[in-house]
Structures
1.
Amino acid sequence: MNKEISQTVLYSRHKDLKAKMAPFGSWVMPIFYQSVIFEHNYVRSQVGIFDVSHMGEIFVQGKDASSFLQGLTINNIDKLKVGSSQYTALCNEKGGIIDDLIIYRIFDQTYLLCVNAANIAKDFSWLQSHQQGFLDLSLTNRSSDFGQIAIQGPLSLKLLNTVFSAEKIDFSQLSYGQIIEVELFGLKVFFARTGYTGEMGFEAYLPLSLVGSLWDLLLACPHPKALPIGLGARDTLRLEAGFILYGNDANDQTTPMEVGIGWACRLLEKDFIGKDAILEAKKRGLERKIEGFIMDEQAIPRANMTLWQDDKEIGLVTSGSYLPSLQKAGGLALVSCKANIEKPIFVDVRGQLKKACIVKKPLYVSKSKTS
Amino acid sequence: MEKLKFPDNYFYSKEHEWLSDKKGIVTVGVSAFAIDQLGDIVHIDLPENNGQSYGAGDSFGTIESTKTVSDLYMPASGKIVAINKAVLESPESLQEDPYDKGWLVKISIDQSPDNLMSAKEYQDYLNQEG
């Protein structure tokens, strides 16, 4: 592993804003500026902006781009229209998840892959190792010259339309999952209506030289007033929304079915690496599955705590936290399919069994999100 | 951010606990610096009953923020004589007032501690640590 710690282009701004910084993989990132709970609630009720420049951007281009991606991803790329996006995953031959990602089809033969920060090098070399036989194909890892800002919350649309009113860009034309290219300070920027909070929101993909300018522009708007949000709140927001986090809730030992993204896995429509193993596992029957849970007793569940029912170990917490919108603790857990999900479960919190119950995902349903 | 406060009459440990005095029955809590570092306090675990004895440096509970769990360490050896049950119900009171409403336990000291810092020494220590 690369032990070097990287800073995003906004590092000095985070320091000026007195953010609590902490290592996040190989990056030092803002965890919170004021308070995780305050920032979480602000995104649920107003609008927040997140520096997510650590995320990776890989471009796949050429006549063969779609057939190349079709064979490597679980979702059906043929269904992806220009200007739209698709949630998908790369799997190994055993059906284990290499990474989960969003693919944007930004032009007819150009796909932008937004991948997890910790997996950039792994994903890129996986793609490269499978490009043989695709003659009209180019793969470019642009992670180090692209930044990313997420704009999330019920007032995100109003914020963008206000900030860009002079440019006459109407962000309301973007429906959920869509992406457009706009010109900002003479350079091309992509805005997508996607996010990781469960709220209405947007994500901007832009050259590093523009990240600071966009950040300042968004924070300068007096109404609606956006606040910077740290990765602490990003995690509690995604957890309430029931979104998995690679490295916690999914890894190369878990299949798409197990982590609850089977809906994106198009087994009947296409062939892809990992499909045979996934079909095989499906035939045997699902053994464990990611479930949402909420604590009934006062205790905070944390990753890797064990779950119990009737004196049997039934699973493992994969993500746990205090959940501000629910005002309760909870999270996601990998639970044996033999467990009775109607009955109480118990989390081993440092030697004490604390009562919890399994609930349907998402743990919290946003009041603002519209499609 | 407003300046963090450290009452002059208290004593502080390197683990960021405070002690109201060095002898007799004293109150134990965590410093404003620790609270500031942790962020939102969402859960606190303390001993359930009075009467348990701890040595200096022993863990007597945990304090959890949204992101992390930290141990609470006894700044002096002694026996627990009171537990702040109110703080278990509303851990946020620790953030609002770590020195009064946010006290954690009271102990009867059985050996006067010699490695605690004054408020001034503690602030110098924090500045050194950066």
2.
Amino acid sequence: MADKELEQLKNILLKDDNARVVDVVRENARTLVSEVLSEALNDREKEDESVAKVLTPIVENSVERSITNHRDKFVSYLYPLVGSLVRKSVAAFLNEFLEKTNKLIENSFTYKGLKWRIKAKQAGVTFAQYVVSQTYVFRVEQVFLIHAETGLLLNSASLDPDGSNDADLISSMLTAINDFIEDSFGKEKRTALDVIKTANFNLVIKDGPFAVIAAAVTGNMSEQVPATLQNALEEIHHLYSEELENFEGDSSTVANSEQQLRDCLITQSRDQTSKVKKKKPWYAIIIVSFLLVLFSVKLFDTFKFDRTLDKLKSLDKTPGIVVRKLTKLGDESYKLSILRDPAVISINEWMQNMKIPLEQIEVSEQLFVSADAEVIQHKIESTLKNYALIGQWKEGSLLLSGEINYSDKMKLGQQLVQFSPNLEVNFDNVTIKSQDVINEENSNLLSELVFKEKVGQISAIQIDFEVAGSVLNNIALAKIQEQTVRLKELFLYAEKVQIKIGVLIVGTSDNTGLQKNNTLISKRRAQIIKSELVKGGIDADHLYDVGIGEIPLPSIASEARKVLFSIIYL
Amino acid sequence: MLGSSAVGKTSLVRHYVDGIFSDKYLTTLGVKIDKKELTVADKNFLLMLWDIEGTDKYSGFQPRYIRGSSAIILVTDCTRVQTFIDAVDILKQARLVTDVPAVLVINKSDLSSEWNIEDQKLLNADEEFIGTIYTSAKTGQAVENLFKTIGNHFVNN
């Protein structure tokens, strides 16, 4: 029914009485309203919270007017409260300030302080800022909500999923401790625990009318923790005031409070903490690097020294150089005495190549001619370079190729024989320069050279015999054949260069048996060779055989069963 | 757990929680708290056992410890009549703080009794307590039963 219709109905029913009823109601309005005012306000507030909205501006205006008009009264009301608040705030500030200052002083003159100073520089912040950041790195590990009266655990939250095992006991013990403190020290006033400090963590406790909130905090906590706990506790009291007041041991009634407790599990800037952890341990790195460098230098020194010694020892293996003596003089210096073929690398050059400091080695050198195959090869090769010829080694013989003057060819042949008398040189691929006509003069000179070469070749031949034997074996016969050819050539060249020569055939024997017999054996050996050469077509008049018996050289005496050749100029 | 010194409060709790008995006497200072889960008639209880420092006529009673408790176990020693006299006093003081149900325990019942069961009348045992239980922490006699009695009381009321 609409309001208008209701009004019409009232008029019809009550007519004149309507005004009287209104009067009566108005007369009793005060009583009627006062009876239900509180309840009505409560109901309405619960319904749509409009009462607070309406009252807020009214209250604000009233308070403002009151303060303006009755300033003195307000001052007297607030004085005790403000005084206490200011005192508490100043005390808290001073405490924090002192703690920070202490930390600053403490950290200024210690290893940690120095470390932090460097780290602060690295991070580009002031030292004070860095200290604060280091001082307030903390983690709230576990939070308990405890019923104030019974000490029973209402709820708990933990960073560690297994961390709440003993939460019941912890909460009871905390209550017991609080009871004990209150009983022992707070005779009149209500005394509550605030912070319990241990070496590993702080237990921060906030006390409320029905519940207590306690948090285990590791690290250096900031003021943020107690403030957060206080807020959470207030929120829990606000949300669950009824449940807390009527608590009878069933904690499930406040199970939802876990959210508020979880909010208390704060960790100061996890990123920052992990960043700090991730930072490289520069100190350790510097010290370790320094030690490593030191160690390496020492190791290198020792190694270098050893290397020098090894290198010097290897000098003996160098062809054409013989180490006679290597003496250690001091820590890193040596005295070196060597024999060296002038054709090979100089000792200074060798040491430079081997990176041996010259000043460490004192060298005394004597020259000699080396019979080392490599040295000879080296000599031959460098000689060939002078004649612009290419030499190839093939099965011990030297195959030459290129173009050369005839006279140079002869000179080269002579030089090569000097290096190695037994060397076989093949000139097949060497062409003689055509314009180089051989004249009479040249021809004589060349014949002389060839003659000398043949003398050398013939003198180099030795023929070996069996023990006490004078029979020729196949090797000996072959040698004799070659020797016959060489001798024939030699006689031809001897004629050319007009030198009269004879061939001395010298027989020798070893030192076994009687000396007399040995002389005879040696003589027979020489005779046999002579007769073979004569058989080969050599004029016997040019051959002279002698037996010299034993050769008194200890090193060859037992092996000297030989026939030697020597050219004699007549 | 309330009662005079050395009546066996700690031993009862220890036997109940850990199943251990020791002849060694260690006096409890302040309070010792233990936890035990109990199931009676399909209902689960978490017992927080506050084993309170023994009280005698020279030491004051600590009523704050029983504030918020759900039940009182008043322990006496059948070999010492004084513990019974103390119990009368303790109960009187406890009742100033709380009216939770209480159980009278007469411990050390494996030893010969010094006082007569009739003396219990001093306490109005039937009215004051939900039960009177003869226990022995040494033999374990009726220890479980003691805590079950409390559980039963809460199930039925």
